[in-house]
Design goal:
Beta-Lactamase, Rhopdopsin 7-helix transmembrane proteins, about 850 residues
Length: about 850
């Protein structure tokens, strides 16, 4: 081991770097290419050009000349096949088929492999200060001419292919191949002086340089032009030398004095040296990097300014004009076309000039599922786009575009079509990233602008149009997710804009998000004239990810509340629908949901893992509401129970999030449930809004006095229960609507007081309304209730017979009408009897 360490030499670094570089590039080619033929051959090409590096490294470790010669001949047995490997790689990369040449090169290389072990291939070993090199015989010289000829052949066919190729991406790839092959030829030729006895370091040990260029050209999808690569590399080397060169000079100056300097002084000098270098890396290097990446910094600056500007633009035309102007000015795009999806036509897109194009669903679906910058040249040349090439290329031609950027925000919004650039260059990676970021912000702004435009139209349209636009707006609100500064504005639209303040219910709210946006929200929705839906949701986490979920949760609750009047059913179905999504994204949420029935003065509620909600009665008694259930998102098969609480006038329901009770002092103490319930009772005599102000003031005093912090969203809602609904007024209203033939409204009123026992007359009315709406089974239940009270009523029995007839229960209908005729002659009954007999 000591001998090996002693033999280490600075001249070992280039071949070692070449060896490691070839292995790394070959590994990337195999892993990235998924065993594609071109990538496998490229990997072999890299490894073969690094075959001689172990020889050179071994010269410094192995001292026996015969052993070195044996190692040289063994490795050259494989190395002589490099023209054959090169030939296969050239043909595959350039899509050329010349099998006969490949067979010839293989046979010739095999002959040289047999001759390697003769004295005519390697005759001796030449020694230089930088190491050893084999002295080639006549066979080696012939092999050199042969290998160089194949290399020249590769350069020539690459140049010919470059002249024929029209696609800029492929042309750039060929340019990299030509550059790399020329460098390989130059570096290989520089081995000749050393093999002829001249003391000249063999540049083939620097083969990692052309291999890096070749790897970049073969493996990258987006390429910088060669001039840019060389220019950037040169500038970076020059800038980096600012720290390297002074260190080398200082080291050489001080090195002779190291042995004579006192250890304490030497330590002090080294500390200063380290501090100066550290200061350079934390202060100077960032400034150099900023100059070096000025384009990237400029793009970030433009991007940030653009996002701030569009937050103030609500007009769609101004927004699209600003987006078009930014892209043209920043990226030097000749022409920018922005097409937006027509609001009332699914497959039509329009631009500011009024031009309309029709986009088929297949293209629309692909753009929605691939919402990134799509480049024409990549579609034309990359195999992974083969299945969509015929679909997308006609669109590039139709739009005269080089790039298409889909605009989407949970749904397809439109596209941005960019023509070629004024400087005819391809977009760089930084510019692609800039486009992607601007696209994301623009999609949100455009979606917001379209929503604003819809709201403006709602003010000026007729009632039918208002209903239509409202449905469209609700649909869009379900899909909207806003980020950055727009997210805060949008989330406010999820909360009730006007709080209930009527004879039945009065509410006040305090809402403060921990960040720009909140993962909390509350529900105060009137389901019908006698029922209110109340609730509070607390999504795990903070900020935009949590806020995005609140929109989806609120929408699902609203949809389910239209189908069910049971909090158990709503919460169970909500958990079943959202658990797969929540588990995939790593989120969950707690929920308290209640339905207030102002006819029976009852609260039906379900608590899904939320902190206990409180009810304070007029005599200051506090009741916690819980059903001891898990949060939403734990298990989609959970069935959530529901409980019933009897309400009285002036009772108060306190909805709140744990951001209040879990506010933590610096000492570790929590605000806690005990302090919270105490302040609830103490402030009970005040109006709901005043009570909230007192509670929040007490919370702030606790935080300030204890040096604490609130690290969560804070939501507090106080709901005061009013008077019960006068049922008789609703019944009279239902009769009036029935007489006016407003059957649906009349039925809706009767359903809203369904929990109240109805008289026979009102059950008869309800049955008639259900019959007219073709809800025959429910109509049958209602008329049977009426018949329980008045079994001999002629009209009740007649309606029962009609309902049975509608249900195709002809025998029951026949019996009913026959009985009716026997009780009292009734012409209508006799007619129905004849009709039913014919049916039977």
């Amino acid at each position: 081991m000591h001998d090996i360490i002693a033999s280490l030499n600075i001249f070992m670094l280039p071949p070692l770097i070449t060896l490691l570089t070839s292995i790394v590039i070959a590994g990337i080619a195999i892993l990235k290419g998924k065993l594609k033929k071109e990538n496998i051959l490229f990997a072999l090409f890299c490894l073969w050009y690094a075959l001689l590096t172990p020889n050179f490294l071994g010269h410094f470790i192995i001292k026996d000349v015969n052993t070195i010669l044996k190692m040289e001949r063994s490795i050259h047995t494989l190395y002589v096949f490099i023209p054959f490997i090169g030939m296969l790689f050239y043909h595959t990369a350039l899509n050329i088929k010349r099998t006969y040449l490949e067979i010839i090169t293989f046979i010739v290389s095999a002959i040289f492999a047999l001759l390697v072990h003769t004295p005519y291939y390697i005759t001796d070993l030449l020694t230089y200060p930088w190491g050893h090199i084999a002295k080639g015989g006549i066979v080696f010289q012939i092999f050199g001419v042969y290998a160089f000829s194949v290399l020249i052949y590769g350069i020539v066919i690459s140049i010919l292919k470059l002249k024929q190729e029209k696609n800029e991406l492929v042309r750039l790839k060929i340019k990299y191949i030509i550059l790399a092959l020329n460098l390989i030829g130059i570096f290989t030729a520089c081995n000749v002086p050393a093999m002829l006895g001249y003391n000249f370091y063999p540049l083939s040990n620097l083969m990692f340089i052309p291999l890096i260029f070749l790897g970049y050209g073969i493996l990258r999808y987006r390429l910088m032009d060669i001039q840019s690569v060389l220019h950037v590399t040169f500038i970076w080397l020059c800038i980096s030398s600012v720290i390297v060169v002074p260190n080398v000079i200082i080291f050489n100056i001080l090195y002779p004095f190291f042995k004579s300097i006192d250890k304490s002084l030497l330590f002090f000098l080294l500390t200063i040296w380290f501090a100066v270098n550290y200061l350079y890396f934390i202060k100077v290097q960032p400034l150099i990097d900023q100059v070096f990446n000025r384009r990237k910094y400029n793009l970030k600056k433009v991007e940030s300014q653009f996002i701030n500007d569009i937050a103030l633009l609500k007009d769609l035309h101004l927004l699209l004009n600003e987006l078009s102007y930014i892209l043209k000015r920043t990226l030097l795009i000749k022409n920018v076309e922005i097409f937006i999806k027509a609001e009332d036509k699914e497959n039509e897109l329009y631009n500011l000039n009024g031009d309309v194009i029709v986009i088929d669903e297949q293209v629309q679906d692909y753009l929605l599922k691939n919402p990134w910058v799509i480049e024409k040249k990549l579609i034309e040349n990359k195999p992974q786009y083969e299945h969509v090439k015929n679909i997308l290329l006609p669109w590039f031609e139709k739009l005269s575009a080089e790039y298409i950027i889909p605009l989407e925000h949970n749904e397809f919004i439109g596209i941005i079509a960019l023509s070629e650039r004024a400087n005819l260059k391809a977009l760089s990676n930084d510019e692609i990233e800039f486009l992607q970021n601007v696209k994301s912000a623009s999609s949100i702004a455009i979606a917001n602008s379209l929503m604003y435009h819809s709201l403006s139209n709602l003010k000026n349209n007729l009632e039918a149009l208002v209903m239509q636009r409202t449905e469209q707006l609700q649909k869009k609100n379900e899909q909207m997710e806003f980020e950055l500064k727009l997210a805060k504005t949008v989330q406010k639209t999820l909360l009730p804009s006007i709080l209930p303040a009527n004879n039945q219910l009065y509410a006040s709210v305090y809402f403060r998000p921990y960040m720009e946006v909140s993962g909390d929200f509350f529900l105060l929705d009137q389901l019908d004239d006698t029922h209110y839906l109340i609730g509070i949701v607390d999504v795990s986490g903070h900020g935009i990810p949590s806020a995005l979920l609140t929109s989806m949760i609120k929408t699902e609750i609203e949809n389910l509340s239209r189908l069910y009047r049971s909090t158990s059913a709503i919460c169970t179905q909500l958990n079943k629908k959202l658990t797969p999504i929540l588990q995939e994204s790593g989120f969950y949420f707690t929920l308290f949901l209640g339905i207030i029935d102002f006819v029976n003065m009852e609260l039906l509620y379900t608590n899904c893992g939320h902190t206990d909600i409180y009810i304070i009665t007029l005599n200051d008694t506090v009741y916690p509401l819980t059903t001891d259930s898990l949060f939403i998102g734990a298990d989609e098969h959970i069935n959530y129970p529901e409980c019933l609480f009897e309400l009285n006038t002036k009772d108060r329901i306190i909805l709140y999030s744990d951001g209040i009770t879990e506010a933590r002092a610096k000492s570790g103490h929590l605000y806690g449930n005990e302090r919270f319930t105490n302040i609830l009772v103490a402030s009970r005599e005040f109006a709901p809004q005043d009570q909230i102000d007192i509670i929040i003031k007490d919370l702030e005093n606790f935080i300030q006095s204890e040096d604490g912090v609130i690290r969560d969203d804070v939501t507090l809602c106080v709901i005061e229960i009013g008077e019960p609904v006068a049922v008789e007024n609703y019944l009279k209203k239902a009769i009036t609507l029935y007489k006016k033939k407003n059957y649906n409204e009349a039925l809706s009123i009767l359903n809203s007081i369904s929990t109240v026992p109805l008289s026979a007359s009102y059950n008869y009315l309800k049955a008639k309304l259900l019959m007219k709406n073709k809800h025959y089974e429910e109509a049958k239940k209602a008329i049977l209730q009426a018949l329980k009270e008045k079994p001999d009523h002629k009209e009740f029995n007649y309606l029962f017979g009609q309902i049975c007839f509608a249900l195709k229960d002809y025998q029951t209908a026949l019996d009913t009408f026959a009985d009716l005729s026997m009780m009292q002659p009734y012409k209508k009954s006799n007619e129905f009897v004849e009709i039913i007999k014919k049916k039977i």
